[in-house]
Backbone:
């Protein structure tokens, strides 16, 4: 988010009708505050004062528009940024902020036009290249995204947003050498910046370096105890390490920040399952589905909780719904086969076992389970063949 200058000023309210120069300066400083609520109050006071020159008003509308955008109120942001540009058609920052808001509203062509205007005004604007790179990546133009990230970093090696964005670009493509170089640079540049540690931690996690990931997540949370992504990522790392109680604590803290996030409830439900607290797990999956009835993962994992509790009918119903929502969840096919088999529905289980084995012919558990199903259905020869193959892969499969 591009703003003009930053100052941490606590603002309760401003009245500039008889304001001194010092009060005006305080308001102007607070209008550029990192806290969007403070910025909106201060910028509004300046805009409504009637004492601002056109250039100052352009700045005020730009800053307030950026604050509205930071709060997710993109329509109000665009209205303000329109005014900013009307007052000063060469305000590059207003074009960048409006481009960000258009991008958030998925009006990508308008966003690209605004970034282009910003670069016309300031061809060496590192922030404009970084913002446009983010948009190119979002709309599936990775080559253009990388070119813009490179240009942003070339123009300003201290552009931490561009370094992190480029690192995330490399990370998503498995290029961890370049990703880690960018994240290391970001950490060195801003050792007080939580997202730098969070992003590097996530890169470590993907490389199965969980302990190093946790070190970075701990620092990210220390720097910003209200970082939703850092808390979520640390919770996942604790789950990987087999520490579900710590994972539950982090997911619970994240849910305090985002109480309507369906996927956070699924993650906490998974952690409850890992701690064998299936009742609380099911409650979390229920809440996730109340928030988002299309959450396939919630159906799939609630099905597993039901299966563990021996409620195979409800398990199968959940697996059915998960696969309806997301047919690519092929690992659920085997779970559904087992649930049907254990409830005695071998005829329904058999096609799922066939599909699971087709996907992985050396899955000893699936082969052995299909053998049991075939035996129950009277196919002795088929059962013997499946069980024999399962034992050749895993000799102790029947123990």
Residues:
């Amino acid at each position: 988010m591009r703003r003009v200058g930053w100052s941490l000023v606590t603002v309760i309210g401003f009245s500039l009708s008889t304001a001194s120069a010092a009060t005006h300066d305080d308001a102007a400083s607070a209008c550029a505050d990192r806290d969007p609520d403070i910025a909106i109050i201060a910028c509004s006071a300046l805009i409504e004062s009637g004492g601002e020159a056109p250039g100052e008003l352009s700045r005020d509308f730009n800053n307030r528009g950026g604050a509205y955008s930071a709060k997710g109120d993109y329509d109000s942001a665009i209205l303000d940024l329109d005014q900013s540009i009307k007052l000063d058609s060469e305000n590059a920052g207003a074009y960048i902020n409006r481009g960000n808001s258009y991008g958030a509203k998925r009006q990508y062509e308008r966003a690209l036009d605004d970034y282009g205007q910003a670069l016309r005004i300031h061809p060496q604007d590192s922030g404009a290249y970084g913002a446009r790179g983010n948009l190119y990546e979002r709309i599936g133009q990775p080559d253009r995204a990388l070119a813009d990230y490179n240009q942003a970093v070339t123009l300003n090696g201290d552009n931490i947003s561009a370094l992190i964005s480029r690192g995330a670009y490399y990370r998503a493509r498995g290029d961890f050498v370049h990703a880690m170089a960018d994240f290391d640079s970001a950490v060195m540049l801003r050792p007080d910046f939580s997202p730098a540690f969070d992003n590097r931690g996530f890169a470590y996690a993907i490389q199965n370096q969980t302990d190093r990931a946790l070190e970075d997540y701990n620092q990210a949370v220390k720097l910003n105890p209200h970082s939703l992504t850092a808390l979520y990522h640390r919770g996942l790392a604790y789950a990987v390490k087999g520490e579900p109680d710590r994972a539950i604590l982090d997911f619970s803290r994240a849910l305090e920040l985002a109480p309507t996030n369906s996927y956070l409830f699924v993650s906490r439900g998974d952690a409850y399952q890992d701690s064998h607290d299936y009742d609380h797990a099911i409650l979390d999956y229920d809440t996730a589905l109340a928030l988002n009835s299309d959450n396939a993962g919630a159906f799939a994992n609630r099905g597993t909780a039901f299966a563990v509790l021996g409620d195979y009918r409800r398990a199968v119903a959940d697996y059915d719904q998960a696969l309806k929502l997301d047919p690519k969840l092929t690992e659920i096919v085997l779970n559904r086969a087992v649930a049907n088999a254990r409830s005695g529905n071998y005829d329904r289980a058999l096609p799922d076992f066939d599909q699971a084995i087709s996907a992985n012919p050396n899955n000893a558990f699936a082969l052995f389970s299909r053998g049991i199903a075939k035996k129950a259905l009277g196919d002795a020869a088929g059962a013997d063949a499946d069980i024999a193959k399962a034992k050749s892969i895993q000799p102790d499969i029947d123990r």
User: Anything to note?
Assistant: Residues 1-19 have pLDDT under 50 and may be disordered.
